[in-house]
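Long-time lurker. I teach an intro course on protein structure, and each term I like to show students one example going from raw sequence to a predicted 3D structure in token notation. This year I'd like something fresh instead of my usual example. Would anyone be willing to generate the tokens for the chain below so I can use it in lecture? Attribution to the forum is fine with me.
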Amino acid sequence: MFKRTLRIATALAPVLLAPACAGTQNRGLESVHQPVVSRTDYALDVATSGGDLAPGEEQRLAGWMTSLRLGYGDRVAIDDPNPYGAGVHDAVARQVAHYGLLVSDDAPVTNAPIAAGTIRVVVTRMKARVPGCPDYSRNSSTDFESNTSSNYGCSSNATLAAMIANPADLVLGQAGSGVVDQLASAKAIDSFRRAAPSGSGGSAIKTESAGGK
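-- Reply from a regular --
Happy to contribute to a lecture. Here you go:
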């Protein structure tokens, strides 16, 4: 049974690495400590049979996904040089659905050929981090050249890297749909206008009593 696991780490933001060459001397309001995004592709080749996964392959796929601790933010795609049947897609989608994910239509390029009679399931995982933080290499209290602290930007950018849902958005943001639903946009305003005034039922000030003597 053919099985190959690929792990490829690729820096997607070389432009963000350039300021790091300047060391830790922040001369402006832009910190040299910027988030760096890395991407890792995990691939598993699964045997097919008659337009569906071969017997036992769906269970093997499920175990593989469990070992990867598949979760939110991961992207799963099917790579097959030949059009795979609907049964293959449905079988992979069933396992991916257990983690609240969908099967992507675009599979990344891997560096190994796919054997005949198999498909390749690729899990793409992206992470963002700020290397070199915290940085206390320079004492700003003795710096008389109007430079900020060497640790400047570490906290805010590290928090951004940890909180962002899709690290790829740090490299290239999401394109707008270009379609605006005016009815959906006006729902909140319409709800506010239709609400009855808070003082319409009598006194706007509620009287409370603590009781007792």
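Some talking points for your students: The two ends are 85 Å apart (CA to CA). The helical segments are 14-17, 57-68, 86-97, 154-163, 182-194.
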